[in-house]
Amino acid sequence: MKIKGLLSILLFIVASIMPNMAENKAPIDIILWENGAQETNNDTGKAYDEDNQIYQPSIRVFLPNEKNTGRAVIICPGGAYYMLAYDHEGYAYADYFKHQGIALIVLKYRMPHGNHKVPMSDVCEAMRVVKSHASEWGINPNDIGIMGFSAGGHLASTFATHYPDDLKPAFQILIYPVISMDEAITHQGSRENLIGKNPDPQLIEYYSNEKHVSDDSPRAFIALSDNDYGVLVENSLRYYMALHQHKVPVSLHIYPTGGHGWGYNESFRFKKAVHDELADWLRSF
Question: Which letter does DSSP use for residue 63 in this model?
């Protein structure tokens, strides 16, 4: 009886541990451009050094466990095209998406540092890599979306409006995004870091993403705070109107407080609200 009792206890412990082990499945780290990047910048040839914002372009993949919808999201963290806030605007979202059966891919993209094409090229390569591993990772290659925060939102919306035909994202999620390079509403630091202090008017036009929405743009979820004085709400409002006018499904959520840069922070009063509304939106299609 003692042996049977001991076995029962052991089996109970194992049964209790196993789900937690599944929950803690190790993420997958993949370096991009192992054979050389398509676009180079002033950092080319230098040692990678995150303290000096010289990032090695890479992705960290968090796959869901038993529940898997086949959907995936690539996140572009923010940081004004100067640095990457990849913790609270990246890795912290792993469990949130896992519990919905959605794979999360957090992208470390390179800063422009003399070449405005560099961040976009890294996003494109990340999408290519995810699509190439789709079968292995249980991902539907036609259900991969793009998500971004602040300047990462600008990068995500750039990808959503300038994507190569074979890399179109299925949807876009933009959190307090920079959208426009129009000096009247842009985030000046992001603009200068991307296209310079005295940019060519053609670059201002090209990276003002509200001007490049089309009938084929992917559906969108946009969330921000009304009192965001870091990135003006007009960025999101212009993008919303452009999507709406092209009859692209779009959901806009403006919270009364929160300022800028809340990401996954517990201090954001409306964290549960935005997460619930985003989850509902993701279930709607």
Answer: -
The enclosing H or E element of 107 equals: strand 102-108
Please report, to the nearest 10 degrees, the dihedral formed by the alpha carbons of residues 124, 125, 126, 128 taken in order.
90
Residue pLDDT, tens place only, 27-58: 999 999 999 999 999 999 999 999 999 999 99
**For residue 74, what is the enclosing H or E element?**
strand 71-76
What are the residues whose beta carbons fall under 8 Å from the beta carbon of 41, sequence distance 6 or more? 110, 111, 112, 113, 114, 115, 118
pTM for the predicted model, two decimal places:
0.91
Sheet containing 171-175: order of strands: 28-31, 58-62, 102-108, 71-76, 144-149, 171-175, 219-225, 250-255
pLDDT, position 12: 45
Distances (CA, A) of 202 to 199, 206, 272: 8, 6, 41
Say how far apart CA 171 and CA 193 lie, in whole Å: 27
Cα 3 from Cα 181, distance rounded (Å): 72
Q: What angle do CA 134, 132, 70 make, to 5 degrees?
A: 15
pLDDT in tens, 192-228: 999 999 999 999 999 999 999 999 999 999 999 999 9
Which two structure tokens, joined as six digits, stand for 187?
Answer: 């985030």
- Give residue 66's pLDDT band: very low, low, confident or very high (50, 70, 90): confident
Phi and psi at residue 264, to the nearest 5°: -100, 10
Query: Which tens digit of pLDDT belongs to each residue from 228-255?
Result: 999 999 999 999 999 999 999 999 999 9
Structure tokens at 208: 């003002």
Helix/strand/coil (H/E/C) assignment for every residue in 246-268: CCCCEEEEEECCCCCCCCCCCCC
Outline where 24-147 has alpha helix (H). Answer: 94-98, 118-132, 134-137
Q: Is the dihedral of CA 150, 154, 159, 160 positive or negative?
A: positive
